From TrEMBL:
PANTHER family: BLL5160 PROTEIN, HYDROLASE, ALPHA/BETA FOLD FAMILY PROTEIN
Protein name: Putative aminoacrylate hydrolase RutD
Keyword field contains Hydrolase: yes
Gene name of this polypeptide: rutD
A GO term for molecular function: hydrolase activity
Domain annotation AB hydrolase-1: ranges: 95-251
Length: 277
């Protein structure tokens, strides 16, 4: 499999893999995109290709947000930027997967640029953060503003994972942070991105989303609780809900094979209720 990666326009990280001659699939990553420390590289490209191997017969683009985000950038502003990428790279209409913060941005992409989105999967996101999620992201923004990066990353793992991973991984991250600099490439982008998540509320635009939309989330997601997820599903005319028992906010990495199988079959046109967990 060919792996391509780099910076679009010198500012926006991207990874491309799969079949370049096939139908496009565009993946919008989560808030962790703003916390990346290094430029796109082959190791990350290979890891992403493995994570999304159910789509290896598609032209898969994992596209981040641009570096040096303007202060005050909203998820709607970011959607406009993604529309520009899809247009410039001639990827439309594309199937789109938006994960966590990427799922927030994807809602506006489908609402404002419907011609660019064939089908949509919003993963681990709702119309807006829940009350606990607002408190958590506010805490991350404060820690980021103080440059306490190991604490942010460890707390993100603690809030996103379930079971033993939620206990063990944060301690390992905090220990690593004492010897490794976890500062992101552009620290200010982390603060801007947290603010964009806190201000996101898509309820007023969901009625104009025409793309068939799969809303997938873990039942134990602490950032986007089930009522917020169901609110998203109910706001889109052609939407299907898939809830995963025992999974938290890190659904894409804790249940990748099951999740990707569900998303793949949805994009292939299967809408039967028996498909979903």
């Amino acid at each position: 499999m060919d792996l391509d990666y780099g910076m679009l326009g010198g500012r926006r990280p991207y990874y491309r893999f799969g079949d370049a001659d096939a139908d496009p699939l565009v993946v919008l990553p989560g808030l962790s995109d703003a916390f990346q420390r290094i430029d796109p590289n082959r190791g990350t490209a290979a890891a992403l290709a493995g994570l999304f191997r159910e789509f290896d017969d598609r032209d898969v683009w994992v596209v981040g947000r641009p570096r040096h985000l303007p202060v005050g950038s909203t998820t709607r502003d970011m959607a406009a930027g993604y529309a520009g990428v899809i247009d410039e790279q001639d990827l439309w209409p594309a199937d789109v997967i938006g994960v966590s913060m990427g799922g927030l941005v994807a809602q506006y992409l489908a609402a404002d640029y419907g011609d660019y989105v064939d089908s949509l999967a919003v993963v681990s996101a709702g119309t807006r953060l829940g009350g606990h999620g607002e408190n958590v992201v506010t805490r991350w923004r404060s820690l980021a503003g103080k440059g306490r990066w190991a604490e942010v990353v460890a707390d993100a793992e603690r809030e996103s994972a379930t079971g033993l991973e939620a206990t063990v991984a944060p301690a390992l991250i905090e220990a690593a942070g004492r010897v490794v600099d976890l500062r992101p490439a552009v620290p200010a982008d982390a603060v801007v991105s947290c603010t964009a998540c806190l201000e996101h509320d898509s309820r007023e635009v969901l009625g104009v989303v025409d793309a068939p939309t799969l809303v997938a989330a873990g039942r134990s997601d602490r950032l986007f609780p089930e009522p917020r997820v169901r609110e998203l599903k109910d706001g889109v005319a052609d939407a299907t809900l898939a809830l995963f028992s025992g999974a938290g906010h890190n659904l894409t990495t804790s249940e990748p094979r099951t999740l990707n199988g569900v998303v793949r079959r949805y994009f292939d046109g299967f809408r039967g209720n028996g498909l979903y967990p």
